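== Folding task for one protein ==

=== Format: two labelled lines per protein ===

==== Paired sequence and structure tokens ====
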Amino acid sequence: MSQDKSSWQDDLSDHPAREYITYIIAGVISLGLVGWLLGMVLSLPWILFVGLGLGAVLGAYIAWRHLVDHRRSQGKSDPS
């Protein structure tokens, strides 16, 4: 079982762009949905666009933090 987890983690480290895109899409979908719901409840449709933008920014931040933590756990230096 631990070997399956190791190959899964190696696969993620081989394709960081796919991981970044996944985090950004997940952020856009989740916070876009929250923005849409708030816009419907408050009758302010522009909140949807705030949620979409915030989701993209937070998704990119989480992807960057994941890269930093992954490199730190492997003993590599901080990319910033």
Summary: The chain has a mean pLDDT of 82. The two ends are 34 Å apart (CA to CA). The helical segments are 2-14, 16-42, 47-73. Residues 31 and 54 are 7 Å apart (CA to CA).
